[in-house]
Specification:
alpha+beta; Alpha-Beta Plaits; 2 domains; 5-stranded mixed β-sheet; 12 strands; about 50% helix
Length: about 350
């Protein structure tokens, strides 16, 4: 009897101790889980406050949760945003999907510590926004497979628009919208490289307007600027989409014909330009009459690099102007020795 009581008391004591231990562990687990949840809520709140949209992806279940700001950024409400990978990818601009997928998989597979990508998204209303997407895998299983990935979307549409404006100003003429000298040089370099590979021909046309200065002097620079814009439009309408028309300063323009079969092809374009610019310009109630002088240099006959092509086309243009204006001349070697 005494032994049975002893074992009973021991069993009760052990049970009480186990219950106490389990209670302590459970309490600590609950407190830790609560702390983790509170910590997670704090950083999500901080990211939301910074203007970022937060996404939380359960990788094995292929289901994501999105923060309020994420949904607002994309134009969705709480109930109408699909949360699987396929829907997620459909919201990415088609031209950007492959690179986004590659960057995400690199992070999932552990080849990169984090994910970062700038891409375009299609919002619910069909509009396009640029976002900076960043994320990282926050948990993996024992085999290293990603279980959960958390990240953000930052709206960078305005920044991208500013960058595009700066890029445009660096490469395009402000008045006419045509490529400037910097972009022309780059396109000539590329065209020459391609022409050398193809063992083909190209031509550069240097064009200067005749009788433009009297227009400026008589009607003012505002009318002169309007005239230059109209000249740019007529030049564009005289060439192919693959050709380049550039304004390199004042009333000087350059036309790049990146692929011609023979010099006669450049002759055809020159005649079209002369005819187009010979027609009356109706500018702000004024009927204006100008013409143009064009010099032409071809690769490989007249020069073998972009700098010399421009120089020789300029020399030929001078001779066209000296020869009576409103005409064109191909460069010849004897022109270089004649004084300007």
């Amino acid at each position: 009897m005494a032994n049975n009581l002893i074992w009973l008391y021991l069993s009760l004591a052990i049970t009480v101790m186990l219950l106490a231990f389990v209670s302590v562990v459970a309490f600590r687990f609950i407190r830790t889980s609560k702390a983790l949840r509170e910590s997670e809520e704090r950083w999500k709140f901080a990211l939301e406050g910074a203007g970022d949209g937060v996404w939380d992806w359960n990788v094995p279940a292929d289901k994501a949760e999105f923060s309020r700001h994420y949904k607002e950024m994309h134009g969705f409400g709480d109930e109408d945003i699909a949360a699987n990978t396929e829907a997620w990818q459909q919201r990415i601009h088609p031209d950007d999907r492959a690179l986004v997928a590659a960057d995400v998989h690199a992070c999932l597979e552990g080849r990169t510590a984090s994910y970062s990508n700038e891409h375009r998204i299609r919002c619910k209303d069909g509009s396009i926004k640029w976002v900076l997407a960043r994320g990282m895998v926050v948990s993996r299983d024992d085999n290293g497979q990603a279980l959960r990935m958390i990240g953000t979307h930052t709206n960078i549409t305005e920044r991208k628009a500013t960058e595009e404006r700066v890029r445009h100003l660096a490469h395009y003429d402000v008045l006419t919208g045509l490529p400037n000298r910097a972009l022309l040089t780059d396109r000539m370099h590329q065209a020459l490289a391609q022409t050398r590979r193809d063992k083909g021909m190209l031509a550069v046309m240097f064009l200067d307007l005749d009788k433009f200065k009297p227009v400026n002097d008589t009607f003012g620079h505002d009318i002169g600027d309007l005239l230059l814009k109209e000249v740019a439009d007529r030049l564009l309408n005289s060439v192919r989409a693959s050709d380049t028309v550039a304004r390199i300063g004042g009333d000087e323009f350059v036309v790049l014909l990146p692929a011609i079969e023979q010099e006669q092809d450049a002759t055809v374009v020159a005649k079209k330009i002369l005819h187009a610019l010979n027609q009356t310009f109706d500018i702000a109630g004024h009927s204006l009459h100008i013409s143009s002088s064009i010099g032409i240099a071809a690769y490989p006959e007249h020069a073998d690099d972009e700098k010399l092509l421009l120089i020789n086309a300029d020399i030929a243009m001078y001779h066209a102007k000296k020869g009576g204006r409103n005409n064109f001349r191909f460069y010849t070697n004897d022109m270089r020795g004649m004084a300007r």
